[in-house]
Write a structure and sequence with these properties.
The chain has 20 helices and 18 strands. It has 662 residues and is an alpha/beta fold. The protein has five domains: 131 residues, GAF domain (Beta-Lactamase, 2-Layer Sandwich); 55 residues; 156 residues, Histidine kinase-like ATPase, C-terminal domain (Heat Shock Protein 90, 2-Layer Sandwich), CATH 3.30.565; 120 residues, Response regulator (Rossmann fold), CATH 3.40.50; 104 residues, Up-down Bundle (Four Helix Bundle (Hemerythrin (Met), subunit A)). A hairpin with a 3-residue loop joins strand 10 and strand 11. It is elongated and about 115 Å long. It is a multi-pass membrane protein.
């Protein structure tokens, strides 16, 4: 639409760069732009309207009414003149315009008689396109129409800005998500790499402490034990902080003996009390014996606070006290206090001591050690409980940290009084699946101490071979092994060998939800490394006792399939046969896509499989696929996806087995 002359803006290079920043060319239609075009047609009363952008060689229409094409060459467009202007270009009658009266689209073609175009001007002043109203008859816009057209043009630019900002935000979000994922993966992997040798260091030191030593040797061994415990505490602090940040750490609600827990903490810490410090535990006479809550997290909070108080108190006293401050029909409100006569905290530091990696004074770390993570974790754990940590302190006079926790009351039916597993387990025969030589030697020594017989398999495949030849009372299963890992081995033992032998997972990894995945894969216990001998023995006792209870097999719910089959048994059987033939293969494809680092294919496969699982009412496995799909949407395959695929693989195998039996 125009003369062969090609008007070029003086800032053409910069104008084209501004246009490309918006990534708008050759994009799909969008309602916001189509609505703006309709509005222009309505306001101006014209049959032709469009929003277009002009690059080096063409005029491309993002939205149009009455044009019928997606683009035209730049040299025949009217809008090449509009982008030269700073305001609206209005031509009331093209027949009277010297530049346009002989144009083919005036004398024929679109038969343009009236043209009004507003340049689409970016915030930095570049005309990248136009919004136009065109008619086959001459006319003149009134002031309101001209203003409205200019307002719509600004709206179009604002829409471009919003789209660009959203793209930038999504890009930044993906980068942030990948950074968080990388951080979590790094922390989990580093946890494994640190915990594996640390397990051997702590374990062999404990064994050494049980031998006959002279006073100097015992002093050295105790020093190594303290250093190992401190290192483990730092690793656990970092991992807990990561779990809290990711929202993966939850507060459990189980009945526990509160008084025993508090006395255990007191006995645990009193061995660390300095010579000139008096350590007290005061419990309210009205305090309940048993409550419902998270025993482990209370232990963690009080050990952190009391450990700090003992560390920063060189003389005087440290007192832990618990008092009932309120009681309702369903719960108790208990005030916990840790008070000391230690170095105290400056008033200007009280607000910052709960920030991570922060300590009250710069010299504190050099003098007393520590990471500065303890109080930050305490604060966040209490917030998860719906409580708040408070502190009162005076420099060189001491400090008091206190908080109020609400615990649910225990009903009689919730108090478990069953007998604990017997102390004398006899001479158990145990199979250890573990690839790390140091850990093999350590666990062999520990089992000898317990009086148990131990066979060792370097991977799951060897372990399965030994299980097929020998009779064992229990399996200790490392999760990360070559050839066949712990999950695959446990699934084979349960689904292929049909063995109910107790399996205890042992891992130096600390992935979110790993314990739950172990139980879902058919394991009976979970012991994190580094382990303490009493904790391992308790896990063995519990697993042996649990083995006397019949294992609950998965129940496949066919109610929905029965409903949609309307009594057609052939259709129902066909659906079952399709599931058996199709789903295990799709799980295999999912694993292959993960191995190829193909996040897009992982996402599509997971989404596609969900409908099949929903038909068989496999809600837990469908949720597993949702987790995989959501993770894959981030554009990167993660350790979380791998963990979910492993669980999915073992559980699908069990479902297929049940369906075949049907």
């Amino acid at each position: 639409m125009g003369s062969p002359n090609q008007p070029i803006p003086h800032n053409e290079r910069e104008r084209l760069a501004a246009l490309k920043r918006y990534n708008i060319l050759d994009t799909l239609p969008e309602d916001a732009f189509d609505d703006a075009t309709k509005l222009v047609s309505y306001i101006c009363g014209v049959p032709i309207a469009h929003i277009s952008f002009i690059d080096e060689s063409r005029q491309w229409f993002k939205s149009e009414i009455g044009v019928g094409v997606s683009e035209v060459p730049r040299e025949i467009s009217f809008c090449r003149y509009t982008i030269m202007e700073s305001e609206m270009l209005e031509i009331e009658d093209t027949h009277l315009n010297e530049k346009l009266k002989d144009d083919p689209n005036v004398t024929g073609g679109f038969k343009v008689r009236f043209y009004a175009g507003v340049p689409l001007t970016t915030p930095d002043g570049y005309n990248i396109g136009t919004i136009c109203a065109i008619d086959h008859v001459s006319k003149k816009l009134d002031e309101n129409q001209r203003n409205a057209l200019s307002i719509v043009a600004k709206h179009v630019i604002n829409q471009l800005e919003v789209n660009t900002k959203n793209i930038e935000l999504n890009t930044q979000k993906k980068i942030a998500d990948r950074a968080v994922l990388a951080k979590d993966s790094f922390l989990a992997n580093m946890s494994h790499e640190i915990r594996t040798p640390l397990n051997a260091v702590i374990g062999f030191t404990d064994l050494l402490a049980q031998t006959k030593l002279d006073n100097v040797q015992r002093d050295y061994v105790e020093s190594v034990q303290i250093a190992g415990e401190n290192l483990l505490l730092i690793v656990n602090d970092i991992l807990d902080l990561s779990k809290i940040e990711s929202g993966s750490l939850t507060i459990e609600e189980q009945p526990f003996n509160l008084k025993k827990t508090l006395k255990h903490i007191y006995n645990l810490l009193k061995v660390k009390v300095p010579e000139n410090v008096e350590f007290n535990l005061f419990l309210d006479a009205d305090m309940p014996e048993v409550v419902i809550g998270d025993q482990g997290r209370l232990n963690q909070i009080l050990v952190n606070l009391t450990g700090n108080a003992l560390k920063f108190t060189e003389e005087g006293e440290v007192t832990v006290s618990v008092k009932k401050v309120d009681e309702t029909e369903n719960q108790y409100a208990l005030r916990f206090s840790v008070k000391d006569t230690g170095i105290g905290i400056s008033p200007n530091k009280l607000k910052t001591i709960f920030e991570r990696f922060t300590q009250a004074e710069e010299c504190t770390t050099r003098r007393f050690g520590g990471t500065g993570l303890g109080l930050s974790i305490v604060k966040q754990l209490l917030e998860l409980h719906g409580a708040e940590i408070q502190v009162k302190s005076q420099k060189e006079r001491g400090s008091e940290f206190f908080f109020v926790l609400n615990y649910k009351k225990v009903k009689n039916a919730e108090i478990v009084t069953g007998a604990a597993p017997g102390e004398n387990l006899g001479k158990l025969k145990i199979l250890l699946c573990e690839d790390n030589i140091l850990n093999q030697k350590l666990i062999k020594s520990v089992m000898d101490n317990f009086g148990f017989e131990l066979d060792i398999a370097e991977n799951g495949e060897i372990g399965i071979n030994l299980l097929s030849k020998n009779t064992y009372d229990l399996v200790l299963m490392d999760l990360q092994m070559p050839v066949m890992d712990g999950y695959q081995t446990a699934a084979h033992i349960r689904n292929e060998m049909n063995l109910s032998i107790p399996i205890i997972a042992m891992t130096a990894h600390s992935l979110v939800g790993e314990q739950e995945h172990c139980f879902s894969a058919g394991m009976d216990g979970y012991v994190p490394k580094p382990f303490k001998q009493p904790a391992l023995l308790e896990a063995i006792k519990a697993a042996i006792a649990k083995n006397n209870i019949p294992v609950q097999k998965r129940n496949v719910d066919l109610s929905y399939l029965n409903e949609i089959s309307c009594g057609n048994l052939n259709f129902k059987q066909e659906m079952i046969d399709l599931f058996i033939a199709k789903i295990p293969n799709e799980v295999k494809q999912l694993q292959e896509a993960f191995n190829d680092n193909n996040a897009e294919r992982v996402q599509k496969l997971a989404h596609h499989m969900k409908s099949s699982l929903d038909m068989f009412m496999l809600e837990d496995l469908s949720s597993c696929l949702s987790i995989i799909e959501d993770e894959a949407k981030k554009g990167i395959v993660s350790v979380t996806i791998q963990s979910e695929i492993k669980m999915l693989d073992s559980q699908i195998a069990e479902v297929v087995k049940i369906l075949k039996e049907l």
